[in-house]
Amino acid sequence: MALEYKSIHPGVAIIIFDDNGSVLLQKRADVGLWGIPSGHVEPGETVEQAAKREVLEETGYHISIEKLIGVYSDPASQVFTYPDGRVVHFITTYFLGKINGGSLNMDPIESLDVAFFPVNALPKALF
Description:
The radius of gyration is 14 Å and the shape is globular. The longest helix is centred in the middle third of the chain and has 13 residues, at 47-59. With 127 residues, it is mainly beta. It contains 2 helices and 8 strands. 21% of the residues are buried. It has helices at 47-59, 75-78, and strands at residues 7-16, 23-28, 34-35, 38-40, 61-72, 79-81, 87-102, 111-117. The chain has one domain (8-117): Nucleoside Triphosphate Pyrophosphohydrolase (Alpha-Beta Complex). The model has no long low-confidence stretch (mean pLDDT 92).
């Protein structure tokens, strides 16, 4: 049986590496899984503004956008079912970001944990 989803949202996701090549991941409070910082675009925002806001909210870091990685919309990878039963189809703009300020200060409503992981040693519970 196919999933029934009734909403589509613009989203952003930001990949950030440290100087050692490790990737920044956030353990999301909404689903309890690790993933790259990401979220919704709010009315009146550009995707770049949304990316910077989401990273700041979720990690405490200020970033610059280095480049556009791509825009993804395939339901096979962009439809998510939340614990409350919502099923949402995202059209997600992925960016490469770079930390240029701030400090680790996660909002417990957004994040359970934030850490850098070597790309060959990612946590098992990925979003």
